[in-house]
Write a structure and sequence with these properties.
CATH superfamily of the largest domain: Periplasmic binding protein-like II
Distance between the termini: 40 Å
Strand content: 15-25%
Low-confidence stretches: none
Structural class: alpha/beta
CATH topology of the largest domain: D-Maltodextrin-Binding Protein, domain 2
Strand order of the largest sheet: 2-1-3-10-4-11
Shape: globular
Radius of gyration: 19 Å
Mean pLDDT: 96
Number of domains: 2
Order of helices and strands: EHEHEHEEEHEHEHEEHHEH
Helix content: 25-40%
């Protein structure tokens, strides 16, 4: 197995195991030996990628931006999901809070997710500040749940919504995905909660590698990855579990807002 590509992923949910076992089988069917190792948090995964102990890491946007910074921009971006492009966060408000514009957040309690969640804390606060909101005038109520998993579990966002339902806060920040899923599950009362604001778009997860990764491994990884097709029932099962319809080529412009946000450490 010395020639196999060793990929790192974070075990944020039990479904991670069947996802990567299935993708490993697909890679092998494409003639690309691949194995995976699971981590409990993205900090350790990134550390071992930078040490060269794994070939590729499936990274959150925060881990991706940190990887770029640690390699002075030289790390290789290999691919992303279609659902990773143009992600958004939303500011949800209680209808009885009387908040009709962002300026109305002043003096109100705003629930946010874990300090390493791009979609539920870092970027919503960054975009609010860019929109002219003085965050010092807003009472932030943080839910630091599953720190180290960068918001992947969605638990802190569920806590945000619970706080909204209970009336403990007036407003809250959640990612698009959790908002859509909770609506679909019938757990959002439209007479009680509504979307005040949707943030500008940003990009989410990325496969990262060091620039020293052998070109033949890079080419083989991308060939096998992009060979997965929604029309193939076996592939579709895995794609659905991982939340995409198509693997896409990498792009960097969607991380510019996160890079800017990370220069303001008070947001973390």
């Amino acid at each position: 197995m010395s020639d196999a590509i060793l990929l790192g992923a974070v075990a944020y949910d039990a479904k991670v195991v069947p996802i990567w076992e299935g993708i490993r089988e697909h890679f092998q069917s494409e003639g690309v030996p691949m194995d995976f190792v699971l981590f409990s948090n993205y900090e350790r995964q990134l550390e071992l990628l930078l040490r060269g102990h794994i070939d590729i890491a499936w990274n959150t946007p925060l881990a991706h931006v940190r990887c770029k910074a640690a390699t002075e921009g030289q790390s290789l971006s290999l691919g992303m999901r279609d659902s990773d492009r143009d992600f958004h966060a939303k500011i949800i408000v209680r209808k009885d809070a009387g908040i009709t514009a962002l300026a109305g957040l002043a003096g109100k309690r705003l629930a946010v997710g874990s300090r390493d969640s791009t979609q539920a804390r870092i970027l919503p606060l960054h975009f609010l500040r860019e929109a002219g909101i003085d965050l010092r005038a807003v009472a932030l109520v943080p839910f630091d749940t599953d720190v180290g998993k960068h918001g992947d579990t969605g638990t802190s966002e569920l806590h945000v919504l619970d706080a909204l339902r209970s009336g403990a806060v007036h407003a809250g920040a959640v990612g698009d995905l959790i908002w859509v899923l909770e609506q679909a599950a019938g757990r959002i009362n439209p007479s009680e909660l509504e979307v005040l604001w949707t943030t500008p778009g940003f990009d989410h997860c990325m496969f990262d590698a060091l620039p020293t990764l052998a070109p033949d491994k890079v080419a083989a990884f991308q060939r096998a990855l992009f060979a997965m097709r929604w029309e193939n029932p076996t592939h579709r099962r895995l794609l659905e579990l991982e939340g995409l319809k198509q693997w896409m080529p990498p792009r960097e412009e969607g991380y510019a807002s996160l890079v800017a946000a990370l220069t303001a450490p008070d947001l973390l």
